[in-house]
Design brief:
It is built from one helix and 15 strands, in the order H-E-E-E-E-E-E-E-E-E-E-E-E-E-E-E. By secondary structure, it is mainly beta. The protein is elongated, with a radius of gyration of 32 Å. The termini are far apart.
């Protein structure tokens, strides 16, 4: 038997095998490089209350339900800018490292902001997406944050100066923000110079104050408070100080 010939043939096969493996590795690397991660358009909506005229976004507070959703926009050249169909793809949702939803085509979840000492909610979406250029599916992790707040009230009055004359009647309006109930379920109270004007009443959203009835202290302090009648820990207060001439 000619061992030299066998050796040459075996060595040739090894070189061919190495060449095939190398070609596959290069193809896989190029194919992976072609894969373009989709753009995830993430949105959220806090299901609590703000005044009708408010044009901003309502911020969640403790125990607020939050609707979160996303749309995936393809970044591959073949389908650039198109909304991707993920109805058959596995989607997982995580909030503060806890799984809150998992399933095929799960593009939205509703969560409740629990009581924890953070300034924001950390959201992770793990999804399976198909890339038209690479012609394969792969998993992508995307991270987002949702800011959180506390209930607030705003006191409004129709004056540009911070003083009143003795012959004036001052009108103050109270606007509640971010409470988990509508104003119908808020107990609202007013105090003037630490003296209670009205007891806690529902929808007590304004105060008409005769400045001439105030003691001649040179200033008047207007304080207001609002409290969720269903949750005593959900409250807010505000004070304003004016000079009286």
């Amino acid at each position: 038997m000619n061992y030299a010939i066998i050796y040459k043939m075996s060595f040739k096969k090894i070189k061919i095998l190495i060449l095939v493996i190398g070609t596959m590795a290069v193809f896989w690397t190029v194919n992976l490089a072609l894969a373009a991660e989709p753009l995830l358009l993430f949105s959220w909506k806090a299901q609590n209350f703000v005044p009708d005229w408010f044009g901003g976004k309502s911020l969640p507070i403790n125990q607020t339900k939050i609707l979160m959703s996303f749309e995936a926009v393809s970044q591959s050249q073949a389908d650039l800018g198109k909304i991707m169909d993920v109805s058959e793809k596995e989607i997982s949702w995580y909030v503060n490292d806890k799984t809150v939803g998992k399933g095929k085509g799960l593009k939205s979840v509703t969560v409740t902001k629990d009581d924890f000492p953070r300034d924001s909610i950390d959201v992770k979406i793990k999804g399976e997406f198909y890339d038209a250029d690479a012609k394969e599916s792969y998993f992508v992790n995307k991270y987002f944050t949702v800011p959180i707040s506390e209930p607030e009230i705003v006191l409004s009055y129709k004056k540009t100066e911070n003083y009143f004359s003795l012959n004036e009647t001052a009108r103050f309006d109270l606007f509640p923000f971010f409470f988990n109930v509508a104003s119908d379920f808020l107990d609202i109270g007013w105090r003037v110079n630490e003296r209670e004007i009205n007891p806690l009443l529902r929808e007590n959203l304004f105060l008409d104050l005769k400045v001439s009835d105030m003691p001649p202290t040179g200033q008047v302090r207007i304080s207001a408070s609002a409290k969720n009648a269903r949750d005593v820990l959900e409250d807010a207060s505000k004070s304003l100080i004016f000079k009286v001439y």
